[in-house]
Amino acid sequence: MAEAADELSAPLGQETVAKKRRFQVPFTAMQALAVVLGLFLVAFVGIALFNDDPLGGEPIAHIALRKTPMAEEKPAAAGHAAEPAAKSPPKQAAGESKTVTIIDGSSGARHNVVIGDDAADKAESDAAPGAMTGIDQRLLEKSRYGMIPVVADGLKPFTVYAADADRAKAAKVPVIAIVVGGLGVGAAKTTDAIMKLPPAVTLAFTPYGADPTKLAERARAQRHEILLQVPMEPFDYPDNDPGPQTLLTSLNAEQNLDRLYWHFSRFQGYAGIANFMGARFVATDPVMQPIMREAAKRGLSYFDDGTTPRSVAAPLAAGQALPFAKADFTIDAVPTSAEIDRVLVKLETLAKERGIAVGAASALPVSIERIAAWTKTLETRGILLVPLTTAMLKSKSG
Hints:
Layout: H1 2-9, H2 17-50, E1 97-103, E2 110-116, H3 118-131, E3 140-142, E4 147-149, H4 157-160, H5 167-170, E5 175-183, H6 187-196, E6 202-205, H7 212-221, E7 226-232, H8 253-264, E8 272-277, H9 285-297, E9 301-304, H10 313-319, E10 324-326, E11 329-330, H11 337-354, E12 356-362, H12 365-378, E13 384-385, H13 388-397
Parallel strand pairs: 5-6, 5-12, 5-13, 6-7, 7-8, 8-9, 9-10, 11-12
Antiparallel strand pairs: 1-2, 3-4
Helix pairs in contact: 6-12, 8-9, 11-12
């Protein structure tokens, strides 16, 4: 009651101390809580309604991408040569090159390689002859794909690019020539063949390597004779596809010759050509005739890898006076050390009986190892290892 009396006796507009103590604290706490809850609710609704981030606030890294400006090309002033570019021009746009799977005809191994468009290939081929050491510029002719071999001033690629050999000795003793093919696709195996095999071993390159000119030049620098392997149609084509620009029995002579020129232009310095696969093509006289005729016209030789008994290459080469050889044995048809050694002995026996024997092999590590070891002792057995051109010349003279 005393408390009520105090309230009644207080002047208007004033509150008693007791009243302040009774209501001030809880009212202030409720206000604070309400304000906090209100702000939280407003923030939540704002984020829900106006946030357009589909990741709901996940951390995002922002990366600035700067486009490198291309140097402007300035035309050369009249009468003055253009200044050489500071660096190589950019590659062609995407879609102008393609990746293909090449199947090694001997080992069955598959390799993915990038083949450029015709314009890019042409540019590389045009530049290649000047870059390759020992290329005789007189023996080059321009085609729409690049430079290709030709006979000039009485000189032929077959004789100019034949590897050095003791031909006087070769005429008196049994000789063996070995061709290791499938090179150019796979820089590691190609380099192994170039560096580990003796110079007298002839190396055959497919046209599909990423840089065939560089590898061919390296082989010639190590005094190897080189051949160009031309992809030809096998019986199970297209399930078994040698690669782009394969010569086909379904094409006419003009179309196949056009494809042959593409292969010719891939690198230079080869003494002849050889089949790459091609069991159906080399057994078909009408399509092989123009190819053999063209090889003879351009001063080349032809090597038959011997895998197709029905090949018509030998009689066609004879009709064109084309230097020719056919492999007597595939050295690594069974790619084991024991079998390779056995076939090498067979080559020795044949060479002693006939005076000449020719073997073909692929660039398998075991093949390179066994052939390299075998050649070190061959001469002690009265047999001379010679480049393929030397064996061809001996065969012709015999």
